[in-house]
């Protein structure tokens, strides 16, 4: 245990987000997975956060067969998330049914990582309950005059084929939204070796147990900010909003300013340090890179 | 610290952790583990015996949904199924997906 402690002390000084994220689903190939792995690691690191709005959520969307479900299965097998698909929820319901007196699946998964496959195929009612759970950590079912509130502190990794079928407020609550695509053939060839080796049973880079232990190690750490740094953070965010070329005008506060703060908070947590300007900068760069791919640049 | 050195150290620690987990599993014992697992299963499902659980749903979809709720992996189910087949003489044709 002492050895692990010493190793973790070294890890936290060596960009743990970059280093540890490479152990997540190492069999998936393509540059885009680098950022997706980081997003997933940040999401995992918010496990145990007491503050309501610190949880991070990720959405992957795109065509079939590109690895969206694959990463969920990997997480379920290695890190203990709960995989739920649309077919399952159509029978049981994510948020239950007041008239049938069922509380729904989300309440069962309180405190866990929920892996939602095919979010776009879920009912409007389930999507709205999910939003409540992602936002408030609980949801309410109303039956006549009786209101039942269920705790559902979940971190969500969802997948979808068509994001037009997901409600705007729900989309808004995902801190990370990635479109998964096929790569151009020049890049595609780089992944072939990994695919072949994996197909024939070679595990690839393995550090999942270390990752799990590290997440336990940081679980109860609560990052703080020095009073003197608050003004710096304010200035950085102001500058970013004014100067970025990313078309952020349609993006809400919740999905931009608050999301950057949540990401920076979690980056600091991963390093077991206080929140500094460096974390804010890294969070802005990460968020902006992802947003630019999604909404593009402003017209000149 | 050099990234390659750090990676070496991490992989070494990972190997040790895996071995430790393997040892722990061994210590828990082979058949005894399955027995404990079945007891846990009965307690969770509220059913009286394993046969009741096994005939509860005969389709793969049913089993998978049920397993998702009460257990974890398909391998565990297969282990359980083999045990049940031995214990109760259940035939595989009942579970066509096998």
Structure description:
The complex is a heterodimer of chains A (300) and B (98). With 300 residues, chain A is of the alpha/beta class. Chain A contains 14 helices and 7 strands. In chain A, α12 (227-243) runs parallel beside α14 and α13 packs across α14. Chain A is globular. With 98 residues, chain B is an all-alpha fold. Helix content of chain B is 77%, strand content 0%. Chain B has helices at residues 3-28, 30-45, 50-56, 60-70, 74-88. The longest helix of chain B is centred in the N-terminal third of the chain and has 26 residues, at 3-28. Chain B starts with a helix and ends in a 10-residue tail after the last helix. Residues 90-98 of chain B have low confidence and may be disordered.
Biggest interchain interface, per-side counts: A-B, 18 and 14 residues
Question: So how many helices of chain B?
Answer: 5
Helix segment count of chain A? Answer: 14
Low-pLDDT stretches of chain B? 90-98
Strand order of the largest sheet of chain A: 2-3-6-1-7
Principal-axis shape of chain B equals rod-shaped
């Amino acid at each position: 245990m002492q050895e692990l402690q010493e190793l973790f002390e070294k890890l936290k000084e060596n960009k743990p987000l970059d280093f540890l994220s490479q152990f997540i689903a190492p069999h998936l190939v393509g540059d885009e997975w680098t950022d997706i792995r980081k997003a997933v690691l940040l999401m995992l690191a918010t496990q145990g956060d007491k503050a309501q709005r610190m949880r991070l959520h990720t959405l992957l969307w795109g065509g079939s067969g590109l690895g969206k479900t694959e990463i969920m299965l990997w997480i379920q097998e290695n890190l203990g998330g709960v995989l739920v698909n649309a077919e399952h929820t159509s029978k049981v319901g994510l948020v239950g049914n007041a008239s049938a007196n069922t509380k729904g699946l989300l309440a069962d998964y309180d405190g866990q990582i929920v892996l939602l496959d095919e979010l776009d195929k879920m009912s409007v009612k389930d999507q709205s309950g999910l939003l409540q759970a992602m936002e408030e950590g609980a949801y309410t079912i109303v039956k006549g005059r009786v209101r039942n509130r269920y705790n559902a502190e979940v971190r969500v990794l969802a997948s979808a084929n068509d994001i037009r079928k997901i409600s705007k407020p729900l989309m808004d609550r995902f801190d990370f939204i990635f479109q998964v695509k096929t790569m151009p053939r020049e890049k595609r060839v780089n992944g072939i070796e990994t695919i072949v080796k994996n197909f024939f049973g070679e595990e690839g880079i393995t550090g999942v147990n270390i990752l799990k232990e590290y997440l336990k190690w940081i679980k109860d750490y609560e990052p703080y900010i020095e009073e003197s740094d608050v003004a710096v953070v304010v200035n950085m965010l102001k500058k970013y909003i004014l100067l970025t070329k990313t078309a952020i005008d349609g993006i809400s506060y919740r999905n931009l300013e608050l999301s950057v703060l949540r990401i920076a908070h979690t980056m600091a947590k991963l390093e077991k340090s206080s929140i500094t300007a460096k974390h804010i900068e890294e969070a802005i760069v990460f968020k902006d890179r992802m947003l630019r791919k999604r909404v593009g640049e402003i017209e000149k | 610290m050099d990234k390659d050195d750090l990676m070496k150290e991490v992989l070494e620690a990972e190997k040790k952790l895996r071995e430790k987990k393997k040892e722990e599993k061994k210590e828990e014992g082979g058949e005894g583990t399955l027995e404990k697992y079945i007891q846990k299963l009965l307690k969770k499902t509220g059913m009286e015996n394993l046969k009741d659980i096994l005939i509860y749903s005969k389709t793969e979809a049913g089993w998978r949904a049920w397993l998702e709720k009460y257990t974890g992996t398909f391998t565990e189910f297969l282990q359980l199924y083999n045990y049940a087949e031995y214990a109760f003489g259940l035939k595989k044709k009942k579970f066509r997906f096998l």
